[in-house]
Amino acid sequence: MIDLHMHSDASDGNLSASELVDLAMKNAIEAIAITDHDSVGSVAQAIKYASDKDIEVVPGIEINCDASEVGFKEVETVGLFIDYEHRAMTEFVKEAKEERLEQKKKIVKKLQELGFDIEFEELKPLTKGSLGRPHIAQLLIRKAPGKFSSIRDVFDKYLGAGMPAYVEREKKYTLKQAISLIKKCGGLAFLAHPGTYGKDPAKLIDFFQSQGGHGIETYYPYHLLCPELKIGEKENLQIIKSFREIAKNRNLLESGGSDFHGGDRETINSVKIPYEVLAKLKQAHKKV
Question: Domain 102-159: which topology?
Fold first, then answer.
């Protein structure tokens, strides 16, 4: 089995790069990709740590971007096999980190205006890398005990797009820019978890492909991470099957993973992805 969508504490995950590698091995996973939000801070450490172990580490990133031209304000693009030391990538990560900080300061200010007793400085101990909204959610859960049931609950009530404390990043990459960056750094670009963008994701998938995207995440644990869908594992397998058919019909590459973060997102091994998926991606990457 493989898992090509995992997060470390370089963004909003709970585990370090080495801890993530150890956990994957414990779960008999043969290959992982660390795809932190707008960050490659754990990639080198993971590759070095895994170099003498029976596991592969694919360098990756998950870029938060915008596709407003087709009606999607928040879209995430996963880049795999990227040159994480490429100058364009290091510059992007630096700029994104600064932009994220400004956005989070504005979110905290909105929350203060909504009556929450929190300070921006309280977020620093919660993150070692890129500051994300989940860190704010963690702080809110701690500071307002009993008000929220989970990080997802905080997003649904305050931090998600369109919610009272939501703040749009001013300099967020467009979908085309994200795909172009991944390509420039020698990687393959995938539309992350297409089933999270509404009832009919076909429009976004077609647009993603038209912008030069290589594939879509066909494997994803919607039954665990999208409670609003109210589905079980059986229904999730049907969703995976439908996206696999879409990928085949559109000649798109397949990828996917558990979107593991740790904490209340202990999703490792929640979707079974055969190694042949990675083998096909390696073949495709040789042609890039």
Answer: DNA polymerase; domain 1 (1.10.150)
Q: Where are the domains of the chain?
A: 2-93+170-286, 102-159
Closest CA to 182 of 156, 207, 208: 208
- As given in the structure block, the two tokens for residue 127 are 């993150």
Which residues are 260's β-sheet partners?
6
| Count of Cβ atoms closer than 10 Å to residue 2 Cβ | 25
Residue with tokens 């979707």, as numbered in its chain: 271
CA distance 275 to 2: 6
Spatial contact of 220 and 255, defined as CB atoms under 8 Å apart: no
Per-residue model confidence as pLDDT tens digits over 167-183 = 988 788 999 999 999 99
Q: What angle do CA 6, 194, 240 make, to 5 degrees?
A: 80
Q: What is the pLDDT of residues 13-59, one digit of tens each?
A: 889 999 999 999 999 999 999 999 999 999 999 999 999 999 999 99
Please give the CATH topology (third level) of the domain spanning 2-93+170-286: TIM Barrel (3.20.20)
pTM of the predicted model as reported, rounded to 2 decimal places: 0.89
Give the chain's radius of gyration (CA, Å).
Answer: 18
